TrEMBL record, chain A:
A GO molecular function held by the record: FAD binding
Record protein name field: Xanthine dehydrogenase family protein subunit M
InterPro entries per UniProt: CO_DH_flav_C (IPR005107), CO_DH_flav_C_dom_sf (IPR036683), Diverse_Substr_Oxidored (IPR051312), FAD-bd_PCMH (IPR016166), FAD-bd_PCMH-like_sf (IPR036318), FAD-bd_PCMH_sub1 (IPR016167), FAD-bd_PCMH_sub2 (IPR016169), Mopterin_DH_FAD-bd (IPR002346)
Signal sequence interval, chain numbering: none
Native source species: Pseudomonas mangiferae
Automatic annotation (TrEMBL), chain B:
Transmembrane feature ranges: none
Molecular function per GO: iron ion binding; oxidoreductase activity
All copies of domain Aldehyde oxidase/xanthine dehydrogenase a/b hammerhead, residue ranges: 19-133
Name of the featured protein: Xanthine dehydrogenase family protein molybdopterin-binding subunit
Pfam family, one: MoCoBD_1
SUPFAM superfamilies in UniProt: CO dehydrogenase molybdoprotein N-domain-like, Molybdenum cofactor-binding domain
Amino acid sequence: MTPFAYARARQVDEALALRAGHPEARFIAGGTNLLDLMKENVARPGMLIDITGLPLHDVETTADGGLRIGALVSNADLAYHPEVERRYPLLAQAILAGASPQLRNMASTGGNLLQRTRCYYFYDAGVPCNKREPGSGCPARDGLNRIHAILGASDQCIAVHPSDMCVALAALEATVEVAGPAGRRVIDFADFHRLPGDQPQRDNTLEDDELIVAITLPARGFARHHAYLKVRDRASYAFALVSVAAALEREADGRIAEARLALGGVAHKPWRDPRAEDLLRGQPCNAESFGRAADALLQGAQGFAHNDFKIELARRAIVRALEQAASQEGTP
Amino acid sequence: MTAHIGKPLDRVDGPLKVTGQAQYAGEFAVPGLTYGVAVNSTLAKGRILALDVDAAKAVPGVVDVLSHLNRPRMAAYDESYTDMDSADGAPFRPLFNDRVLYSGQPLALVVAETFEAARYAATLVGVRYAQEPHQTDIHRQAPHDAPAELPKPRGDADEAFARAAVKVEAAYSSPVEHHNPMEPHASTVVYQPDGGLTIYDKTQSAVNTLEFVSHIFGLADGDARVLSPFVGGAFGSGLRPQYQVVLAVMAALHLKRSVRVTLTRQQMFTFGHRPQTLQRLKLGADQKGHLEAVIHEVLGETSRFEDFTEHVAEWSGALYHCDNVRLAYQLAALDVYTPLDMRAPGAVLGIYALECALDELAVATGVDPVQLRIDNFSPVNQNEGKPYSSKQLLACYQQGAERFGWSQRNPQPRSMREGHQLIGWGMASGAWEAMLMPASAKATLAIDGSLVVASATADIGTGTYTVMTQIAGETLGLPMDKVTFKLGDTSLPKAPLEGGSFTVSSVGTAVQQACQALIKTLLETAQKDDDSPLAGATPDDVECVDGCLRLKADPARSLTFTDIVRQSGSPSLEAQADAKPEAERDKYATGSHAAVFVEVKVDEALGTVQVSRVVSAIAAGRVVNPKTAENQILGGVVWGIGMALQEETQLDHHLGRFMNHSLAEYHIPVQADIQDLQVIFVEEHDRIVNPLGSKGVGEIGIVGVAAAIANAVYHATGKRVRDLPITLDKLL
């Protein structure tokens, strides 16, 4: 671990000002990922700006009936927040599918978006990795890639984003509110994380000097028909091989009025494709329509040997999640 | 009569552990301590051309950077590096020369005034290598015969297999696993003003550590003492002294300072591991499943510098009756560290393959899997041509099957389901050796009537402190709180390695005999007084009750221990025993046995496997403490679940490096994976195995579990997965 300076900010502007003067600095909230990365010598910030004292701990209803979640609300508090449990149970389920109680108590909402991949090669400073050291190579492509991407990968990087919460946020079409030297801007969730392309070191579209201040959920929460299905190697404390956030609204006759479908564990970002969701609209809830949507969402999927199984697994998981969502309350 | 043996007593060291008062090797506070952090290789094979240590040395607080270039003098010959658990070959010598033998090898040690400075400086050490081609893939390395004495072939197994009415031939594989005890390996070496060393080490034998470092660094008797009062799990990883203790002693001698080296979790993947195996089983049987041929061929992985062997195939010639048996054992030497004994070494691998093959035979013959094993039961170990001193395996089958409800099983695969979940029932046998090693113990009775018993054994979380206290208290008729057991200290009487499930039997026997010798001493002391109420009594005539020595025939003729010690004129009386196996034992085979029954639920579409129920029936002689013994079996079953479904250290063969080196990515079961586990102890009364009649329970709990799960998965799905771990991708 590299020595670092430490500063504490009380206000967003103060945090941004500190950051502006110290390009080697990083913000730290729960630290559940950043500290690990520092101990592994993967992250070497020269300064940590502690933002836990910023006034970003509130959850409040917005004018249009949505929910604005402060970036520093802990994952545990968010999952058990009465409004989230009642109106956005998909989000609560996804959060509780991730990590462990201790980690969820520490981890922040904003920090969850900024988790870095669990690719073995990224985590080992003794081996090449284009995400950690751009241009050094990607041993995962021809190496151990059972946990890697089947969608949206590039020649340079086949890592996946590890978050469960983000898969639900993608399905719910949340927005990310960020503050920077030039003021505030709002990023659609679909545009927040990015595919690796030829800049795998960049996980998202946040600028270096920007800070996430809030996540906003739109009014529609799909509370009646939803499911978060996580398929993993053990029953808890394991990252998803494939996860599915499925949300439906159904007509009186049972047909699908609106569908949302997002995948975790398969790409560098939560994977959504509006075409797959369009295919479901107006369709009955059955294995055929679900299977067609799964095929559409997985179009172009490509394995790298060890992870070939993920393509079929994802298809089955999508169908199962949609069945669970359709069946009513969507308990997993 | 005070009776401690057989009681489910709480751990005597429990309060110390849960209140943080139990100190582990990396926790002892030492004035002026320095901290060493190892720099590990990123290359699997080659030479160090240059080490750039300038940047590291420039970090404030850094004292020195040790490497092969500036280390103190070390022994030159391989013999000096052997230890009590060595494999054949040339043991690894940390920082000895410029050779890089495996990825993760320690190449340098940065020593600093603070841990933080050492850790940072270690990241700044630059290594320039001359790379050489490496091989870490067991499938791509030509095997050689293992230097192991296998039982001679009996009968003609190949011919018998060829003409057998029913044949099973199958290949099984198991991956590399790492021990991963909760406590990482650590050593704190205290440099005394007179140049002597006090070494706190994480080890399964303080004696082993002391002899090892003494030989390497030429220490004389009395130059060093090793202490290891508490060990946070080891599972075999502490059977051989690991590199952290060599580096810490090296630095202390070089700097004449106290040094601590604690390995990181990632570094816990840079020494011994359970070897990968490829196994081929051929079983020939008649139509009713009676075994006529057993052929078991094993290929294990080892390092380039040592041939690690364990008993993998032997079990296939011992567990069941068969007159035509051929066993084979080869090794593939790879550019990795030497494998190391890990809980039930060998047995857990060989019996996995054997018990899966037997399940395949049960399917092929249509005989129930339990009945098949009963029909092939052998009261004799045919490898040795000796009867077992006891083998209540049939009772294990019967009691385990009854508790589990096995009679309700429909043999047809995919015959039970609950929604998306296919349900399967499987079973397997387990076995382990009941060994007995020479061990010594000393019992000291103080004038206040309290007893201290000591032996240089270890308690690696298994309950040694508690069980030895029970045995001593029972023998001398004292309550538990009057007895203190001491261990983990080279100044105490010698004990064998704490491993192999032989500690209770070996050290327990020594403790019992030391206490019996003490009774004799007490009696002799009492009888020095002519008017003694015990005058004329022989040791057989007396008994110890409530701190008194009294005549069995006339309990009124009694003396308190306190009176006897006072009478001796010394502050205490002591006796030592050096226990050895008795000759009678050689006429018998000895072992513990198990029957494991498992229910699994497999998601038909997603392949996820849940172990919903396990019943493990254990025959391990006399159980000294049912609470700590059950705890051992439960731990073994949990590990068996991990072995069956999750555990695998993954090697990148291009890099020649283990890559999932953290507990987030190296999966072991978590609480949510563990459901209904039940343990049955089938008591055995065995006076041959050792005077205590106890066989030990450290290993037997894990053996057979993986096979029972694999067999249950087959029963649930109709799919036979022969490569561990059975991850969901193999069931899609």
